[in-house]
Amino acid sequence: MKAEDIKKILIAGAGTMGRHIGFACVMNGYSVVMYDVKEDAVKKSIDSIRSKIDSTAASGLITREAADGVKENIVGMSDLAAATAEVDLVSESIPENPDIKGEFFGKLNGACPPRTIFTTNTSSLVPSMFADKTGRPDRFLAFHFHPGSKLVDVMPHPGTSPETVETVRRFSELIRHSPIVLKKENTGYVFNALLNPWLLAALDLVSRDVASPEDVDRSWKEVTAMPIGPFALMDYIGLETVWHITDYWAKKKNDSRAQQSADMLKEYVDRGDLGMKTGKGFYDYGRKM
Ligand SMILES: NC(=O)c1ccc[n+]([C@@H]2O[C@H](COP(=O)([O-])OP(=O)(O)OC[C@H]3O[C@@H](n4cnc5c(N)ncnc54)[C@H](O)[C@@H]3O)[C@@H](O)[C@H]2O)c1
């Protein structure tokens, strides 16, 4: 399938990233279905995307009439069979766990038309970990978004067809993003391969009680003159996602110091302090964002 033939997108996982990707797709003329196992997450995602469309109209970037048309192109569903009908491309943003993702892609393969391209927005896994589970490894790759940026990573696994790589690369341009096509699989793509060791070093300093999150952020910002430190960035990403990544790799590498950091993150997750989206993480934001 060529990128120009793509009409309908299924966003699987209606959380932080699903909303970001769903908004990008619907704003660029695609028909979008937001799917999640939780009905509440589906509803919240539709409300939040529709209100973002309204804000775009209010700021004068699109007309009120256009905004109303765009809002009609996005629907939410928690029934997988209904959500997958006539879908051309799936963008998956469910929890960062290869077993959960693998099981989901297995179900998706049974429900989607044969032509459908599957993509994962995983941050720290690689597509070959669950390519077989998709039942269509040639039409599967990682298509990874960076919140707050137009950069996207298009990362094939060894079994992805060149046609699928080109279709997803071109599709990313059609939703006005800026693609990097990786030459081979790499954990953390390009940017995250730089970012993840930095976040882990910051967590290590706090979990070993060397310094507070505020002081770690302050030392980074004052020396580099950058606007944000690692702990504020983790609050922005969402501490559940950061915990999933840290815990997975700590266990995989049998790394006791990284495990100590993961366990510290788990305390925040168990309290429901997930960062900006719940109003509290390492910092207190006073209200839900
Ligand atoms: N948050 C970020 O900054 C960021 C950036 C790039 C990539 N990612 C990746 O995107 C993915 C999702 O991250 P997020 O931050 O959006 O998470 P999130 O917790 O905000 O959202 C995940 C959603 O998936 C739903 N879900 C759970 N199991 C499901 C299933 N089996 N089927 C359908 N839905 C299911 C949950 O109900 C939830 O609404 C992860 O793989 C993460 O690594 C996150």
Kindly describe this structure.
With 289 residues, the chain is an alpha/beta fold. The protein has two domains: 3-181, NAD(P)-binding Rossmann-like Domain (Rossmann fold, 3-Layer(aba) Sandwich), CATH 3.40.50.720; 191-278, N-(1-d-carboxylethyl)-l-norvaline Dehydrogenase, domain 2. Helices cover 48% and strands 13% of the residues. Strands 3-2-1-4-5-6-7-8 form an eight-stranded mixed sheet. Strand 4 (89-92), helix 5 (98-111) and strand 5 form a beta-alpha-beta unit. Helix 2 (39-58) packs antiparallel against helix 3 (64-72), helix 7 crosses helix 11 (256-271) and helix 10 runs antiparallel to helix 11. The longest helix has 20 residues, at 39-58. The model has no long low-confidence stretch (mean pLDDT 96). Nicotinamide-adenine-dinucleotide binds at residues 12-18, 36-38, 41, 93-96, 100, 104, 121-123, 145, 147, 237-238, 240-241.
* CATH architectural type of the largest domain: 3-Layer(aba) Sandwich
Classify the fold: give the CATH topology of the largest domain: Rossmann fold
The CATH superfamily of the largest domain is identified as NAD(P)-binding Rossmann-like Domain
What is the typical, i.e. mean, pLDDT? 96
Q: What is the terminal-to-terminal distance?
A: 39 Å
The fraction of residues in strands falls at 5-15%
- Contiguous helical run count: 11
Categorize the overall geometry.
globular
The tally of structural domains comes to: 2
According to CATH, what is the class of the largest domain? Alpha Beta
Q: How are the strands of the biggest sheet laid out side by side? A: 3-2-1-4-5-6-7-8
- N-to-C series of helices and strands: EHEHHEHEHEEEHEHHHHH
